[in-house]
Amino acid sequence: MKLYLDPGHGGEDPGAQDNGLNEKDITLAIALKIRTIILKDYENVQVKMSRTSDTTKGLAERSSAANDWDADFFLAIHINSADNSAQGYEDFIYDGLSDSSKAAKYQDIIHSEVIKVNQLKDRGQKRANFHVLRETKMPSLLTENGFISNKHDAELMKDSSWQLKVAQGHVNGIARAFNLKRKVTKETPKTTTTPKTTQTTTKTVYTVYVGSYKSKDNAKDRVAELKKKSIKSSIVPTKISGATWYRVKVASYTTNAKAEKRLKAIEKLGYDDAFIITEKTSTTTTKSVTQKPVANTTKTTTAKPAASTSKPARAKPTTSTNSNTNPTPSNNPKEVPIIADPGLFTILGPTFLSPEQMDQFVKKVNPNAPELGQFYQTYGNYYGIRGDVAFAQAIHETDYFRFTGVVNPGQNNYAGIGATGGDTRGASFKNEEDGVLAQLQHLYAYATTKPLPKQYPLVDPRFELVDRGSAPTWTALNGKWAVPGTTYGQIILNLYEQMIHAG
Length: 503
Known about the structure:
alpha/beta; 6-stranded mixed sheet; 5-stranded antiparallel sheet
């Protein structure tokens, strides 16, 4: 199936303008998302677009290109405008067609799918003598996705998660209309014959550490210092990004509450580099019963907060006099975080995915994406922030670093900092590294009230504008980082889970 996508207007032609928005920007964002989804999810689909950036294209150029390519379907994406009381969704086919035409049948299907998800008033299915409907040789449809002149509709348009829903609705309709076959994800064969099965029992352990060092001698000094205060401790080596670090372990507990109590007691003694790491430990047993084998996992580090307390386990980024930075657990690909409750999944925590895993994930969608994984790991470790989840946030904000919104690539702004709506493009940073650093600093401001560690300069221009500590979890960013953004955090975590399971 050959799909020709036509994002309305572009370049010197902004289309409709109101409420701080340009039609050309919204139509392009939706069309690019349609292309991404349909190519990722369905087999035997080819997509061409009249434009993939903010360029000027005439109507004849659009229709001729689709005809020359011999497309199977032409889909034009537009935004409506009228007085500020008009609102809702409508779509059009050429007015010279009959009710039994293919275009009419496709309109019935796509209209029903889009209206299911777009949160807009249904204005019905219509006909018109538009150039791109009249001059294209294949069945064609033009969709008007809300009124830019209406405050309700315009607020939705500003939210990239809404744009994604609209795109998904279009894809669902096209898939139904053309009987597209969904791509099958390869699974591990389930059939096995064995007289025994291995079962894994998992429990959560909360371990309190007082410092983490690149130098083992520094760790020994900390152990000796704690001994003088009648605190028993031991040194636990761990691999982080290929390097060995030495953590000073005080005690492990089966409940987060006990670990927090011990942490507070140690903090009162002046150790501001103490932190908690939550781990999943597993034991295996074998039964003489023929069953499907259970994967034998030895140890999985997780960032899941304890259900018994609303206060999440912490991994503090503050430096001590003997350490460089307080690192997070190793980026072992076997260590998979559990997101049992998105509402409890904290911004502060370990970075699990390696820079290579992050970069490879985004390049599957955008081969030209910059390789930023190393920066997210480095600054994530330094500030005690989940750098790989921050990377997922950047993917969401930039549409896989394709910058299909108002922010442009030259700004090195990967989180839309300062892009508060309309034509406001937001902050610019001198290089890629500073762009990532600013994003992590902005997340730090939301996640904690603690002072920003001083090793790196403050490059986030809006750090002081944040209500400090107001969003300790990713979903708490809803309505703060993105407005209205009621599912902003959930979208980020969904992307993160896709990264984890990408292999």
